From TrEMBL, chain A:
Compartment(s) of residence: Cell outer membrane
Record-linked InterPro entries: SusD-like_N, SusD_RagB_dom, TPR-like_helical_dom_sf
Family, similarity comment: Belongs to the SusD family.
Alphabetic keyword roster: Cell outer membrane, Membrane, Signal
Record's protein name: RagB/SusD family nutrient uptake outer membrane protein
Source lineage: Bacteria, Pseudomonadati, Bacteroidota, Cytophagia, Cytophagales
Cellular component GO terms held in the UniProt record: cell outer membrane
Pfam families in the cross-refs: SusD-like_3, SusD_RagB
UniProtKB/TrEMBL annotation, chain B:
InterPro entries associated with the record: Beta-barrel_TonB_sf, CarboxyPept-like_regulatory, Plug_dom, Plug_dom_sf, TonB-dep_OMP_SusC/RagA, TonB-dep_OMP_SusC/RagA_CS, TonB-dep_rcpt-like
Classification via PROSITE patterns: TONB_DEPENDENT_REC_3
Keywords: Cell outer membrane, Membrane, Receptor, Signal, Transmembrane, Transmembrane beta strand, Transport
Keyword Signal: yes
Organism for this UniProt entry: Marivirga aurantiaca
GO cellular component: cell outer membrane
SUPFAM superfamilies: Carboxypeptidase regulatory domain-like, Porins
Protein name as it appears in the record: TonB-dependent receptor
Membrane topology: Multi-pass membrane protein
Annotated localization: Cell outer membrane
Principal location: membrane
Length: 448, 991
């Protein structure tokens, strides 16, 4: 019996080999605890890169860009994507996957920005200039995201702090009004402009001073603050030594970055792709086709023609994105030609004048396209010039994510696109947001 | 925690010391023979009652074992009535067994041990090798289809080697893993699909690495009182697999081979070239465009490709296995090697498995014995892209217009139109998954006293999956990128240790006590890498090294550990009153530290009324037992470290590293707990010729783990939270009957039916989770998991030809507000009927399976009948019945109808089916013929599988789901690879 007791004891020892501590395992090896993530400059730089990575989302560089032309009259849904077809018909449901993806992707970037900003003050070993620059970059990216959102959905929830936990106060935020959203955007951009004043032009792959001013020009144009739009556009055109690229085609050549591009989201060695060429080219998946209308719009001799639209066996296709093989077409966020168009429009909207500078800015774009100037004899009043500028803008910026927003902004969408219900000029708030956000001010747009 | 351990120790102390130890061991030997013909019976199990210790008889029917003087010996053999004989101090006991098909005499494998079915109080289903052997599939789960009450097995896809989904008593979790725990020879194994390259519902089954022919029996623990011993991971049921062991005696060899062919059961009726051209013209007319094809072009079709025929084929399937087993007093062995090879009925698909097994049992002395089991397998699985891509082979074959040719005049693939050429994709691309699997375990049994046994078992499960894809420039997608290559490795190692101390005692011929305590830990680590690249110099260089451009490269890993203590106490009084207590405490690294340990108890009682005196004078029942069980089970399958706040890496920009916040913390993350109540009854009538088992159960899962979607405006998609409750309640009936049994003719049949009702009781703040997957599955309070939530089609308006949607809120608009529940993918009931006939040397078995009342969203029709995508897509011939002019009464809408390509109930169908799973006819050569050439058994057989399916479902196969084992995306057919029908012939030879 005594001997047996010893054996029982040994057995118990055997059981005790298992210990509780072995349950404290490391988190997955591709992750790091949040508290250790942004503590020094390396971590901060990585988190900033993470923000730009967010802008590489397919919902932004592909869907957001393509939707602006599908919903309008430059592209039409041509493939298997039923949700594109509904956007084409200007009759999306709130469960449309692109409506949801665009919403989520932009707020994802906003959250990444807010995480950088909240940690900025605690990062060790940063100079004031580095802190200012980072804050300016982050605010600009946040403003860009909110600007994309407000154009598509109207007023949206405004966040300037990251979500750190799962409390209802943090998670449920109602929609701000459209004007509050614009105020938020302007504040961010104006603060950013101050923080980065005098820093000049950068690589074009990250936010720099001209990027901030160019976005301000664009935002002011949408707010119809014509003098401000004009002033910001002119300062971008004049103060940074930027030139229109004499070769229109070169703007869209991935291999030699054009001086005309102010800010672009690039795809090189970063685990991301932009399959937009695959979506648009007839030789690719061809999910969205160029309309016959845009094809017919370009005159022969317009050297933007074949760069913009192609034709293959009677199929028209958008031709600005060519990188079928490596799927690394950049998303050009803003380029100089748009500033010329903003300046022309902002000046003309303030007043018509036969000697108006508006003609100069418009004709700079037409010259580059190889087209004859438009003069006061052609555009004899403000309305005719307004139309000429709008047409030029359409041709210059086709497939770059502007058309729908321009039509809506200038109150022409219903007439041009034969939309009968004005409430369809806003996209629906995604159903998933409405289902999960219990704030009383999180409401659907009318007629969805 | 410490308190708990103290308690547990106290519990052991009681178990171990409280009972008087009083046993003098003697050696008992004897011969077992059959009453009918006095022929010695080899392979009879002789077990010391209550201890599990025992032996089997040799070829002459002889046995020898150690037993206590007062022990009772159990003699059991399949097809014979079990005898219970007290030793009474005798050293020689000869026994004669009577013929009996009663299953009540079986020994049933339960967690960490086995129990006489008579004394079983939990709900356990068991199938032995005989029942399992007929079904032809590399995955053993397939052989359970239609066989076991309460176990719903769905094939999901006809892809060779693909994972099946198994639900034991309904779905008790949503995202916390829905598949049962697989335990092979006492070691929980890796069973999930670990492929990194997605082929949608055609996941790789890690269970396929196990050769079904090596399996002796499968036990399925269905209720908490049975599976509480696997506590934290038992909520979805536990499948216990026992592999074959050697038997004492001369070495036996057996050779099993079969060969067969497979083909599609049903093709879809699609338009031919002439019909398609007419259809394209009709669209043009509808859109007021000029006609595309002239009358002559419509009537004259030089190209009329039947793309289904082009990608489908008659495919061979074969399996060859050689087994040797035998042994002496001390050492027994079972060794087998096998090759299984199945080509898929779709070009480019096949599955080949090479496996070997060696099971060794060695008795060191009367106290110590060692058993080791080693399984090594290597498999190669070739799949083709499935339903979610535009380069899928079957989807493209269905969608691609018949006017497109396969080859041009030079024999090169023609790529035109929206859809890739599926013949090119199926024939040219590589999609290889090679798995290497080692399952090894070694167990040490030490008999401390005659009543007390210590067992320690250490197991290793090593799984390595290497995936490679190459899309050459002869495919459209490959051509666009100069060739696309992917290389991915996944390795999972699992180390398991468990130790048990088991005490058995049979006291005063009345008190049968079994007590077991144990501990176990498992350490699992996952490692993976993944590289995707393009731009290859030539199609002869198909590995990543040849690529000019790396698109993405990742590598990482994670750890998971689980630590457990458990115990079981079983007490039976005169085989009449039975009490079983189970308890298990699990700690899991997946759970937040504050909630890490969970104690899960199970209790069940059994009352064998048949032993009561008042039952002695009745002649209706031959057995009658009532069972009642209650217990709790857990689930921690939610991924690693989900309770921490984390940043993720690899979110790079412009060649610079980037990190982003990926997870908000949930320090409250806890176990998902299922509480289960089970009432059951086992009955036998007509001298045991008819047996009925009936069970009713009620499961409530509380705090089920769900990826809780967060508002997109938070920047996060969601996080894992314990957010809801769901219930499953059901009834199960299993009937076994021996219709005839005499020397020449045996006829048995069994039938089972299961009814499960699943309901979500609560979700986070009542928020429904909708729009999940292709079929808009939803989670809604008060509804079963995965109901179809979409617009409800009321049919085609005869005046407009448009599908009319029900305007639920009567606001005059049709939009998302009008979505409603239109169907349920969960069946009302499922079951099967099988029958076995033996007449002299001829055997016939038939297995069938049915499912009733489940709906399917036929996502294929959303494309093949939408008449809305212009000339891109071929259509089903059904569109011929479409609405053409006012007054037409039809259920097919007009061309370009507003809702034709929306997800609506128009595409919901009844998915009920009855399927003849297998018919096998065999012939055993008479012994007098084959003994001349020194053979002991020769049987030839022919078998037909899936040759008949009765269903109202219009798609290729009702037993599919495009999303595989997903817990939410259910009952949706989206161009899914159907299960083939199969004819095979085989031979079994033993010598």
């Amino acid at each position: 019996m005594k001997k047996n007791k010893n054996i029982y004891f040994l057995t118990l020892i055997c059981f005790w080999i298992t210990s509780c501590e072995m349950l404290d395992v490391d988190p997955p090896y591709d992750t790091i605890l949040s508290e250790n993530a942004i503590t020094d400059k390396r971590g901060l730089d990585a988190a900033v890169n993470g923000v730009y990575d967010g802008l590489q989302s397919g919902a932004i560089v592909l869907d957001y860009v393509v939707i602006a032309d599908i919903a309008a009259d430059n592209l039409r849904a041509a493939g298997s994507k039923i949700d594109y077809i509904n956007i084409d018909n200007n009759d999306s449901f709130s469960n449309n996957i692109y409506v949801e993806a665009v919403w989520n992707a932009h707020f994802d970037v906003i959250n990444r920005v807010n995480n950088v900003l909240v940690n900025l003050s605690s990062v060790s070993g940063l100079s004031d200039a580095e802190i200012n620059r980072t804050e300016a970059e982050m605010r600009t990216v946040r403003a860009l995201c909110y600007f994309n959102l407000v154009r598509m959905y109207g007023g949206v929830p405004l966040r300037d702090e990251p979500v750190a936990g799962a409390s209802n106060e943090e998670l449920f935020i109602g929609r701000a009004s459209k004007s509050e959203t614009y105020t938020f955007i302007s504040d961010d951009l104006e603060t950013a402009a101050q923080l980065m004043e005098g820093s000049g032009k950068g690589s074009g792959l990250k936010v720099d001073e001209p990027t901030i001013l160019a976005l301000l020009a664009r935002v002011k144009l949408y707010q119809e603050d014509w003098p401000a739009a004009e002033a910001y556009a002119k300062s971008v055109i004049n103060e940074f030594g930027l030139e229109l690229d004499p070769d229109y085609e070169a703007i869209f050549d991935e291999n030699s970055p054009s001086e005309e591009i102010i800010f672009q989201i690039d795809f090189v060695n970063d685990n991301d792709i932009n399959p937009i060429a695959k979506w648009l080219l007839a030789a690719g998946r061809y999910e969205a086709a160029a309309t016959e209308e845009i094809f017919e719009l370009y005159q022969t001799g317009d050297n933007r023609f074949t760069v913009s639209v192609g034709e293959s066996n009677g199929d028209y296709y958008a031709n600005k994105y060519n990188n079928l093989q490596n799927e690394n077409d950049s998303w050009i966020v803003v380029r100089l030609a748009e500033m010329y168009m903003v300046a022309a429009e902002a000046i003309n909207e303030q007043s018509y004048d036969a000697n108006s500078e508006a003609f100069d800015f418009l004709n700079a774009i037409r010259d580059r396209a190889g087209l004859a100037d438009v003069g006061p004899l052609d555009a004899t009043n403000q309305e005719i010039l307004r139309r000429a500028i709008a047409l030029e803008r359409r041709k210059e910026l086709a497939f770059e994510g502007h058309r729908w927003h321009d039509l809506v902004r200038t109150d022409r969408a219903m007439e041009v696109l034969e939309i009968t219900n004005p409430n369809k000029l806003l996209f629906p708030i995604p159903q998933s947001e409405l289902n999960t956000n219990n704030h009383p001010d999180m409401v659907q747009n009318a007629d969805y | 925690m410490r308190t708990f351990i103290k308690l547990l120790m106290a519990f052991w102390a009681i178990c171990v010391f409280a009972v008087e130890i009083n046993a003098q061991s003697i050696t008992v030997k004897g011969t077992v023979s059959s009453t009918e013909d006095n022929i010695p019976l080899p392979g009879v199990n002789v077990i010391v009652k209550g201890s599990g210790a025992g032996t089997t008889t040799d070829l002459e029917g002889k046995y020898q074992l150690n037993a206590g003087k007062d022990d009772v010996l159990l003699y059991s053999f399949i097809g014979m009535k079990t005898e219970e004989i007290p030793v009474n101090g005798r050293t020689t006991i000869d026994v004669k067994l009577k013929s009996d098909v009663s299953q009540l005499s079986e020994v049933v494998v339960v967690g960490y041990g086995s129990v006489d079915r008579k004394l079983l109080t939990g709900s356990v289903a068991q199938a032995d090798s005989k029942e399992l052997s007929n079904t032809i599939n590399p995955d053993i789960s397939s052989s359970l289809q239609g066989k076991v009450a309460g176990v719903q097995v769905n094939q999901n896809s006809g892809t060779p080697g693909a994972a099946l989904s198994i639900q034991v008593r309904g779905q008790n979790s949503i995202s916390g893993g829905t598949q049962p725990l697989y335990v092979v020879d006492g070691v929980p194994i890796t069973s999930e699909n670990l492929g990194q390259i997605s082929y949608e519902g055609q996941g790789i089954s890690a269970i396929s690495d196990l050769n079904p022919n090596d399996i002796e029996s499968i036990s399925i623990l269905k209720d908490a009182s049975a599976s509480a011993i696997y506590g934290a991971r038992g909520a979805n049921g536990v499948v216990l697999i026992t592999t074959k062991s050697g038997e004492k005696g001369a070495t036996k060899f057996s050779l099993n081979s079969y060969y067969g062919t497979q083909q599609i059961y049903k093709k879809l009726d699609l338009l031919d070239a002439g019909q398609f051209k007419q259809y394209v013209n009709d669209i043009a007319a509808d859109e007021e465009r000029p006609e595309v094809y002239s009358e002559e072009q419509i009537n004259n079709n030089p190209v009329d490709t039947d793309w289904q025929d082009a990608v489908l084929r008659i495919a061979p399937i074969q399996n060859h296995q050689l087994t040797a087993s035998g042994g002496g007093e001390k050492t027994k062995f079972y060794a087998s090697t096998s090759i299984f090879d199945q080509e898929g009925i779709i070009i480019g698909t096949d599955y080949t498995r090479y496996s070997g097994r060696l099971n060794l049992d060695h008795k060191v002395n009367n106290k110590l014995s060692i058993d080791t089991k080693l399984n090594i397998s290597f498999s190669e699985n070739n799949r083709v892209p499935g339903d979610q891509t535009i380069n899928g082979v079957l989807p493209n074959a269905i969608s691609k217009p018949p006017v497109d040719p396969i080859y041009d005049e030079n024999g090169n693939y023609v790529e035109q139109g929206f859809w890739d050429n599926p013949v090119a994709n199926g024939s040219e691309a590589d999609n290889v998954a090679e798995s290497f699997r080692t399952l090894f375990n070694i167990g040490w049994d030490y008999r401390i006293t005659d009543d007390l046994k210590f067992r320690n078992q250490v197991g290793l499960d090593y799984y390595h999956l290497m995936e490679r894809r190459y899309e050459p420039t002869t495919t459209r997608r490959g051509a666009q990128s100069g060739g696309i290559g992917v290389s991915a490795n996944t390795r999972v190692t699992k180390l398991v240790q468990n130790s048990t101390l088991e005490y058995n005692k049979y006291i005063n011929k009345a008190h049968d006590i079994t007590a077991l305590v144990g501990s176990s830990f498992e350490i699992i680590n996952d490692r993976f890498d993944f590289i995707r690249a393009n731009n290859f110099p030539t199609n002869d260089l198909r590995y990543i090294s040849g690529a000019g451009n790396i698109e993405s490269a990742t590598a990482s890993g994670s750890e998971y550990a689980i630590n457990s203590f458990f115990g079981r106490l079983m007490y039976a009084f005169k085989d009449k009153y039975i009490l079983t207590l189970n308890v298990r405490a699990d700690g899991s690294s997946n759970i937040a530290p504050d909630n890490r340990y969970q104690v899960l108890p199970g209790v069940s009682v059994g009352w064998r009324l048949i032993e009561e005196s008042f039952m002695q004078n009745q002649s209706i029942f031959n057995d009658l037992k009532l069972r009642l069980g209650y217990g709790k089970l857990g689930n921690d399958q939610i991924g690693r470290a989900r309770f921490l706040s984390l940043y993720g890496s690899g979110f790079n920009y412009n060649s610079q590293p980037g990190i982003i916040p990926v997870q908000i913390p949930n320090p409250d993350l806890s176990w998902e707990v299922t509480t289960n109540t089970n009432v059951g009854m086992d009955m036998a009538f007509l001298s045991g010729k008819l047996q009925l088992t009936a069970d009713a159960y009620y499961n409530v899962t509380t705090d089920f783990l769900q990826f809780r979607p967060l508002p997109g405006s938070s920047g996060y998609a969601g996080f894992d939270q314990n957010i809801g409750e769901l219930e499953n309640r059901g009834l199960e009936f299993a009937l076994n009957g021996t219709l005839l049994s005499n020397d020449d003719f045996q006829w048995t049949t069994n039938a089972n039916i299961s009814i499960n009702r699943n309901k979500i009781l609560s979700l986070y703040e009542g928020q429904p989770i909708i729009n999940q997957g292709r079929g808009n599955n939803a989670l809604i309070e008060g509804q079963p998991i995965g109901v179809f939530y979409m617009l409800k089609s009321l049919g085609v308006d005869p005046s407009t030809g448009e599908l009319v949607m029900e305007d639920v809120n009567r606001d005059g608009l049709t939009n998302d507000q009008d979505q409603q529940i239109v169907g349920d993918p969960n069946p009302d009931f499922t079951g099967g009927i099988s029958t076995n006939l033996n007449y002299k040397n001829i055997d016939l078995s038939i297995v069938s399976q049915f499912s009733y009342g489940n709906d399917i969203f036929n996502g294929t029709r959303q494309y093949t009948e939408n008449m809305n995508l212009g000339s891109n897509d071929n259509q089903a011939t059904r569109i011929d019945r479409r609405w053409r002019e006012p007054g037409d009464i039809t259920n097919v809408p007009k061309i370009n109808g507003r809702f034709n390509n929306e997800i609506t109930s128009h595409y919901i169908e009844d998915g009920s089916f009855f399927r003849l799973r297998n018919i096998t006819l065999g012939y055993r050569f008479p012994v007098e013929w084959i003994s001349k050439i020194k053979l002991t058994n020769v049987r030839i057989y022919a078998s037909a599988q899936n040759i008949l399916t009765l269903t109202p479902y219009s798609g290729m196969d009702p037993d599919v789901n495009y999303s595989g084992t997903s817990g939410i995306r259910k009952g949706t057919d989206f161009f899914t690879f159907p299960v083939p029908k199969m004819y095979t012939a085989g031979i079994n030879i033993s010598f």
